[in-house]
Amino acid sequence: MIYYLSQLILDENHGTPWEARLSFLRLFHYITVRSAGAAVTALLLSWWLGPKIIHGLKQLKFGQDYADKAEAAGGLEARILSKKGTPTMGGVLIISVLAFSTMLWTQWNAQVELTMLSVLVLAGLGFYDDYAKIIQQSGGGTPPRVKLMVQTALGLFVGIYLWLLPAQSELRLLGGKSLMQSNLVTDLMVPFHKFPYEIGAVLGVIIVLLAVVGSSNAVNLTDGLDGLAIGCTLIVTFVFLVFTYLAGNVKAAAYLEIPYVNGAGELTVFCAALIGAGLGFLWFNCHPAQVFMGDTGSLALGGAFGLIAVLIHQPLVLVIAGGVFVLEASSVMLQTSWFRFTRLRYGTGRRIFKMAPLHHHFEKLGWYESQVVMRFYILCFLFAVLALATLKLR
Questions:
Q1: Domain that holds residue 74
Q2: Rounded distance, CA 337 to CA 134, Å?
Q3: Is residue 20 in some structural domain?
Q4: Are 283 and 230 in contact (CB under 8 A)?
Q5: pTM for the complete prediction?
Q6: Does residue 22 sit within a domain?
C-alpha cells in the first residue's frame, strides 16, 4: 500500500516544483527500506495489540483449562509452573499483525499472494482446531485426518499451480546473461550443488506437498514449551529473509550462482514482517507464558516456511534451516512407529524416547523448561548457520 501510494504521489507531481521535494518517497521503492518498515510496524502493533488480545481471550475463556499432554503423562519434575489456564489462540495476534504489515509495506505479486493465501488457510484450520480443543476441554481437537486433508489439498493446489506456470527461476552469469531456466516444481535444487536436477512433475509436486504439510506439522509439534516454537521460528525466518533477498536480486544471485526468481524479493518484506510479529509475540510468550500461539499460529507459520522455500527454489534448504523442527517431527514418527512395531512383535509397545516430541524427552530427563528452550535455540542457530553456508559452499 505504501509503495503504491508513494508511486502515485511521485507520478502526480512529476514535472512540478514539488517533484524534488518529494524525491525522498523513492526510498519506498527499496526492498530494504520496506522490510525495515514492515518489521518495525509489526513489532509495535504486536506490543500494542498483545495485552488487548490476551485480555479478550481470557474474557472469552479461550484458555487451556485442560492439562497438556506432557503434564498428563506425568514425570515432569523440572516443570515449575503448570500450563493449565493460560490463554491459547495467540496465533491470532501473529497472523493479524503479519497480514496487516505485509499488506502495508509489500509490493503485491503472485508470490506474496500465494504465501498469504496459504497462511490464512492454515491459520483458519488451526483456529478451528484450537476452538474444538477448548469446547471439548480434552485437548483432542480436530481429527488428525481432517487436518491432514486440508493441508494436503493446499499443498497439491500450490504444487500444481506452480507446475503449470512457465519457467520461474533462472541461473545467471555475473554479466546478467541467463545460463539456464528452471521450473520451481519439475527442477530440484540440492544444497551444496550449483545446478538443478530434473525430477519431473509428479515427484516435484510431491516434494512441494511434503514441504508445506511437513513444515506445518513440524512447527506445530515444536509448540510445547514457553517461547520454543516462536523463538526457533524467528531464527529460521531470518535465514529465509536472507535467501529471499538474494534470490530476488539479479546481481547477488548471479554472484552466488543461486537461482534468481523474479519477484521473490517481496517475500523479504513478508519475512521481515514475520520477524517483527514474532518478536512481539515472544514478548508475551516467553517463560512464564502469558499466551500460547496454539495451532492458529504454528500451522500457519510452518506452512509459510514450506511455501517460501519452494518459491525461492530451495525446498531442501528448509530441512537444514529448520533442523530443530525436523528433529521434533522425526522423534514423534520414530516413537510412534517403534511403539507399534514392538507391540505387534512382543505384545507390549516400547519407547525410544521417554516422551515425544523431543523437547518433552529432555524435560523428563530433569532439564528445566528454560534449559530446554535455550539449548534448542542454540541448535537452531547452528542449523541456520549451516543453511546460510549453502549459499557459498557448492
A1: 35-389
A2: 29
A3: no
A4: no
A5: 0.92
A6: no
